[in-house]
Structures are given as C-alpha cells and as structure tokens.
Write a structure and sequence with these properties.
251 residues; six-stranded mixed β-sheet; alpha+beta; 12 strands; 18% helix; Deoxyribonuclease I, Chain A; 5 helices
Length: 251
C-alpha cells in the first residue's frame, strides 16, 4: 500500500529572541515539510511583554525568506497587533482550507503580557490524494504554573470538540503550557496518541529555561497517522526544544 510521508517540526521560537541561531537552524532544516511555530512576531509595532528581552518584531518575514519553498499562514492574537502563531508548509502540500477557533477569551486582558486569548490554528491539507489536518496551538498561560484550571479544562474541551468534528488524520502540536499529569492533557489525548508520553520524554526545555518545570510542548496524533520517527531535538535556539515528527498517511 502506498503512503504519503511527511516531516514536521513544532517549536515555540521565544519571539525569535535568539535570532541568528534560530534562523540558521530553520535554514539548515528547510527540507522539513511543515513547521509549526509559536510566539511569532509579524510586523509588530511593539513587543507583547514588559520583560527585558528584545525580540525582532518581524521574525515572521525573516523566516519566510529562509523558507522560499514554503507557503506561510499567520494566526494573530486578537488583543496584540502583529503577534501570534504560524505554520509554514511546503508548496507541494495543498492547503485546501485554513482558519482558527477561539478556545479561550480573556475579557480582562491588561493590554500586554502572555495572559491573552488563545486560538487553535488549523490547516486542512491534501497531498497525493490524501487529506489531513495540521493543528497548531499555544495554550493559556495564567501565571500560576502548568496545572489544571477551569479555563484550561474548558480550553481542552473546546479543542477536543473540534477534533471530534474532523474526518481526516490529525496532527496536533504546539506549546500547551501544561504538565503531563493534568486532566487538561487527558482530555486531549483521549482517542489520540500522546507522543511525549509514548516516547518517555523527560523535558521539552533548553538550557535557557531556568525554572524547574520541564514540560510544555506536545504532539498528539490521531490513530490513522503512522509514526516513522519522533525526537525532541537538542538545539538551543529557544527556551523550548524543537520537536521533530516524521509521519505517514496510508493511501
């Protein structure tokens, strides 16, 4: 039986704060079919936080220039101009539809900082007659660690409801800001494969992250997706590690 074979990297790029090593890394891996990025600036007038980091305010454009064979899809955060998440997909992949669903809305957002609303970005893709979905996500941050909260559980329920509405194979990835032992994660992995757990990953953080909690990033796949390779890569281009997935879709 024939199959479609694809590679994907998911990475929270930390706003592009470590700009040169990040861009060099992306260019070195330009043959990867799909990149799912979180914390992306795109022609932003100002940075989203009051911390002391000074990220490039159009890292999106710099990434585009290093991936000339990819088509890019940017999903902005509602409350912050020029900041969001993004997918870059090889031109050989036909994106039939793309969009987002809101899974958390902060009606009391103060105007800066990471407690903003959250959207799930989705792409319905086709390659060699096979349809599949790529879902890219950056989960709720509440300043109280990565344990369950009412909003996080509702966020996971909304994502799961959306997943249940889809009829083709699914790859869901991103920075979920969650511990692996939470009910929020259990909701998401119900009926899906949790590759962080399955491959016994101990950390998705690099040396730049000084706090004790070492989990944040996940890849979940539907059971009609076959894994060829899965790795958490030791590349210090962010405070998160890149996560690599090689997967197949049976024809």
């Amino acid at each position: 039986m024939q199959s479609v074979n694809l590679n994907l990297i998911s990475l929270n790029i930390w706003g592009g704060y470590i700009e040169r090593p990040l861009l060099e890394y992306i260019e070195k891996n330009k043959d990867v079919d799909i990149f799912c990025f979180q914390e992306v600036y795109h022609k932003a007038p100002v940075k989203m936080s009051t911390d002391d980091k000074y990220p490039p305010l159009d890292i999106y454009d710099s990434i585009q220039k290093r991936l000339p064979e990819h088509v890019s899809y940017f999903q902005p955060i509602k409350e912050i101009e020029g900041y969001g998440i993004a997918v870059f997909a090889k031109k050989q992949i036909t994106v039939v539809e793309s969009g987002s669903i809101n899974v958390y809305y902060n009606q009391n957002y103060p105007g800066s900082g990471p407690s903003h609303s959250r959207d799930l970005q989705w792409l319905k893709c086709e390659m060699a007659g096979k349809y599949f979905y790529i879902l890219n996500f950056h989960g709720l941050w509440n300043g109280k660690g990565k344990t369950d909260s009412k909003d996080r559980i509702i966020q996971s329920q909304k994502i799961k409801e959306f997943i249940n509405s889809l009829e083709y194979p699914i790859v869901l990835c991103g920075d979920f800001n969650l511990r692996p032992d939470t009910e929020s994660i259990n909701i998401l992995k119900n009926g899906m494969r949790d590759l962080i757990k399955e491959y016994d990953i101990k950390s998705t953080r690099t040396l730049f992250y000084k706090k004790p909690e070492k989990f944040a990033d996940y890849i979940f796949i539907s059971k009609d997706v076959s894994v060829n390779a899965f790795k958490v890569l030791e590349e210090d281009v962010s405070d998160h590690t890149p996560i690599f997935l090689s997967f197949s879709l049976l024809l």
